[in-house]
Design goal:
The protein is mainly alpha-helical and 304 residues long. The chain has one domain. Helix 1 runs parallel beside helix 10.
Amino acid sequence: MTIAKLGYTLLGLFIVWNWGFLMGATFRKIGARLAGRYGIPFYQPWINFFKNIGVRTTITHGVMYYLGPVFRLTGGIGLFFFMPMVFTGDPNGHWTNFSFEGDLILILYFQLFGMLGMALGAGEGGHPYSAMGIARGLAQHAAVELPLTLAFLSIAIQYDTFSVYKIVEAQQGGFQNWVLFTNPFASAAIILAMLGAMGHSPFNLVKAPNEILIGPATEYEGTYLGFMQSAGSILHVMEAVLFMNLVFGGATSWAELIVKTFLIYFWSVFVGMVFPRFKIEQSITWFFKVPLVLGVLAIIVFSF
């Protein structure tokens, strides 16, 4: 049984990895068409990945520099391993992965794991703007995590559980049972804070295109860049799955999961195409003004 579950989990990871690549290529294509360009072919992410995996680098930095992309990939895979993907009514089903009572707390740690790993890796790099990227990334991440954590706690209080599976289970029976409608303050806080978690404009302060090139990808190359590409594809899908499970009722099939994660990710991409990038002080102030207030209200409503 354990071997079969591990097999299904690895198959699910393969699906998520490929869906992340395809989704990323799709939105790059959409952005290019809006700008009057043709854009990349849909298969370009796979070409980039296999090309980078086959390249070896001769650049020498500290050990932590090379562990940065590994930590980021580990954060994405950790999110996947403990996240229920498809609700089947069986808590031990094939697509619940290794979720358990209290997995929401562990998931919050894995969200931070990849960011801290990349910060430590960038700190040992030779790029002159590494310190700027670290300061921006950690400051904005803290501002994003605060309203997200409050909203997650509100949902945990609402359903009296820290189990993502049980939260999804409680939302079954129709869209009117979704947290989107039963806890609108927490939902609004998550929907707004997720814009920072996804890292698109106006909150793409670490990569900051046309200002400091594109952040860590400027210096990492070869296999390490391939790891970062894989980590990015998995993380974007898993963050969308997390928000889907907590706000939009989860998914009862892979087809439903693909549609919902596409729409959730599209929300962040759409905002990024409409609004220019914030300065770091503008970004942090915005998260403390709007999503944080909504998160506090969500806690108050379900605590009294």
